[in-house]
Amino acid sequence: MFESMIRKFLYHPVSIPRDTPLPPHCSDAREVWVESSLGDQVHGLYWPAPPGRPTILFFHGNAQSVYEWAFIREDFESVSAGLLLIDYPGYGKSTGRPSEAALYTAGEATWEWLMSAGVAPSDIIVFGKSLGGGVAVEVTRGKSPGGLVLESTFQSIPSVAKILLPMLPSKALFKKERYDSIEKMKETMCPVLIIHGSMDSLIPLKEGQALFDAANPPKELYIVSGADHNNVSLMAGKEYGDRINKWLEEHF
Predict the structure, then answer these.
(1) pLDDT (tens digit, 9 = 90+) per residue, 209-235?
(2) Strands across the sheet containing 192-197
(3) How far is it, in rounded angstroms, from Cα 111 to Cα 127?
(4) DSSP code of residue 62
């Protein structure tokens, strides 16, 4: 019973019929299908990188689908990079049900798909937003991507639950859905950029700060003044893309 409640708390999937056409704002994307080791058919949108530029492997938050998340391309306009944006199992057109294990295997499968498409690991920038940060950290373990970007994300689910639901014994309840990113940060072997809003009311800044402290160098912390959880790029404006691009130019 508790596991079911926890999953309802963590995941808010939106299902899309498989034959739904691409919306106008992402009609230039290539639809891709990747099979995970659990047998889930993972749906994604892919925009190949310009010659000599990296590809962002983007893992989104716990709600909506790639159709809504495709608007992030506007945030990356100045970055001039390719983008692979996927839906987790149970989200959008992807089959299966969301869980920590399912999201991890979906992430690993899309990493492998990019390499099979001819993208070298050093040309992949793994980017995780909110819940996607837990997936991004897991995918980069023991690998050497071009970089890891974590935006508005957490040390672990029990850590966030302790803040949002202080009356519950989070360590005892969250046994399967944990996303223990803080324990894995020492295994990152690439440049790391942590982005967080100073006024994040869902995942406080101290969560991002802890991930930054645990990461191996080279690393950078970008705090967006006045930003809450879902408006980081909006509050940062043009500086958002420029800052990511500057970080890329320093390390890519």
Answers:
(1) 999 999 999 999 999 999 999 999 999
(2) 30-35, 41-47, 82-86, 55-59, 124-129, 147-151, 192-197, 219-224
(3) 12
(4) S
Q: Which residues contact 240 (CB under 8 A, 6 or more apart)?
A: 75, 224, 232, 233
Dihedrals phi, psi of 161, to nearest 5 degrees = -60, -35
How many residues can be counted in the chain? 252
Cβ-Cβ contacts under 8 Å for 52 (sequence gap 6 or more): none
Report the C-alpha gap between 36 and 66 in whole angstroms: 18
Q: Is the dihedral of CA 199, 202, 204, 205 positive or negative?
A: negative
Phi and psi torsions of 9, nearest 5°: -70, -35
Contacts with 204 (C-beta within 8 Å, 6 or more apart), sequence order: 163
In this prediction the pTM is: 0.95
Low-confidence ranges of the chain (pLDDT < 50): 1
Domains of the chain: 2-251 (3.40.50.1820)
pLDDT digits (tens, 9 = 90+) for 29-59: 999 999 999 999 999 999 999 999 999 999 9
Question: Rounded to an integer, what distance in angstroms lies between the CA atom of residue 158 and that of residue 225?
Answer: 26
Q: Hey, which residues are catalytic here?
A: 130, 200, 229
